[in-house]
Amino acid sequence: MTTSLDDQTMLNVRPKDSALHERHRALLGPTLPLLGTNWQRGRLLLGEEGRFDCPPGGRRSDMVELDLRQAEAPSLSSLSENRVALSYNAASLDAARAAMIASAAQGGWPIAGDEKSLALLTLAERIAKSEIPVLLEGPTGTGKEVFARFVHRMSKRASGPFVAVNCAAMPEAMLEGLLFGHRKGAFTGASDAREGLFRAADGGTLLLDEIGELPLALQAKLLRTLQEGEVLPLGATKPIKIDVRIVACTNRTLSAEVEAGRFREDLLYRINVFPLELAALRDRRGDIAPLAFGMLLRHACRSGMPQWLTGQALALLATHNWPGNVRELENVIRRAILLAGEEARIGSEHIVFDQPVRGVASDGTIPAPSTAGGSLSDVAFQSEAQAILAALDDHKGHRANTARSLGISERTLRYRLASMRESGLLAAGGEA
Q: Is the pLDDT of residue 30 over 80?
């Protein structure tokens, strides 16, 4: 009744498991290849009706059990820390695939369904095996720390500490002592000695978040630390050897910071051995649905809380530009959970963006709606209208295909279009 996603069972299903694969072929066929990376093999154990067999070699401590069920009403339930129940039907396959990807990432692993993200993870896995510094570049809120933890987990240092510090969050005087440590009495108020984060990360990985904010004076000291593999605590006269791998993150273009005189060129060359660039969420839309289900698992998916995202809700999420990236998506999902209350599913009426998307104007553009005196349901209605119009445009006005892509019936689509005309969001008699 079960199968583990390792090399053998991915390619050659054991006879006792073939029936499970056959029953869930429509779900597993397109999804398993997306989970076929080294870091996921052996972590996911599939079962049915609450029954899981012990896989060959025993269960790993980080194994996730996924209980698959075919049911009229789709749902995703968090049964325990490492067990998730996924119920789905033929009409909810696209959402179920996203939910399965999210389930497989339980335990803080990256959630990826977009080709760009999957390719980047494959590259990051290869880089993790080396000892070279890693520079993660990308806009704020794209998940750089998740990737940094992934690099640590996939490295030979996985059993060592992972220590993170935000270089923009501390005053320069405090940051130096925090990073490199200090001796007792090194400065006013130093009543005790502190080892510093470099020494705390010895044998593991140190994440320097927002390294572009690091003051120039500390950049020089950091460069020497990286070159010599040793730190000199404040007030000390003898350096201390360390063994630390550096992962640095930035939302700035460091080459431009070098030209502006705000970042040392020699330090850039030291940390920029193999940069990885994380794209904005709007440029990797294949990640939106899996990430949304991952956040639903984190914040809901329990009794008395929403346990699914409807096709309309997912279509609406896919149309948004996500200026706040993954952080904004989490805000939207948490807000939707609150608005849905005890309802079983989150619908498009529960989706309210941090920066509301726009309705349709007479010239075909979509001006920003006024929220003054308006309810959340009014904003959600205009957001839903944008999703419908975008889908109609994608399918060149073909209503049947549009309804199918949105996960609604043609009758529901006609009703929505009529409501949009009555509200002035669509010209009377218009075909969108």
A: yes
Distances (CA, A) of 387 to 96, 320, 361, 432: 20, 9, 15, 12
Q: Report d(CA 112, CA 278) in Å as an integer.
A: 12
Q: How far apart are CA 121 and CA 282, in angstroms?
A: 18
Query: In which residue are the tokens 């779900």 written?
Result: 27
Contact yes or no for 388/417 (Cβ under 8 A): yes
pLDDT above 60 (res 171)? yes
- Report the alpha-carbon distance of residue 64 to residue 24 in Å, rounded: 18
| pLDDT reading at 3 higher than 80 | no
Q: Give me the DSSP letters along 21-78.
A: HHHTHHHHHHHGGGG-STTTTTTEEEEETTB-PPPTT---TT-EEEEEEE-SS-EEEE
Q: Identify which of 151, 111, 140 has the alpha carbon closest to the alpha carbon of residue 275.
A: 151
- Residue 43 makes CB contacts below 8 A (sequence gap 6+) with 5, 60, 62, 63, 64, 104
> Which pLDDT score is estimated for 98?
97
Tokens encoding 52: 């899981």
Query: Distance (Å, rounded) from C-alpha 128 to C-alpha 148?
Result: 10
**Six token digits for residue 165:** 């510090």
For residue 208, the cross-strand partners are 165, 248
Cα–Cα distance measured from residue 267 to residue 29, given in angstroms and rounded to the nearest whole number = 47
Give the integer Cα–Cα distance in Å for 353 and 317. Answer: 9
How many Å is the Cα radius of gyration of the chain? Answer: 25
Say how far apart CA 152 and CA 290 lie, in whole Å.
Answer: 23
Exposure of 396 by Cβ count < 10 A (0-12 exposed, 13-18 middle, 19+ buried)?
exposed
pTM for the structure as a whole: 0.78
pLDDT in tens, 253-283: 999 999 999 999 999 999 999 899 999 999 9
Whole-angstrom CA distances from 179 to 163, 193, 222 are 11, 13, 9
8 A C-beta contact, residue 109 and residue 39: yes
Distance, in Å, from the CA atom of 68 to the CA atom of 340, rounded to the nearest integer, reads 25
Interatomic CA distance for residues 96 and 145, integer angstroms: 27
Q: Nearest CA to 77 among 110, 53, 50, 112?
A: 50
- pLDDT band at residue 195, thresholds of 50, 70 and 90? confident
Helix (H) or strand (E) holding 414: helix 410-422
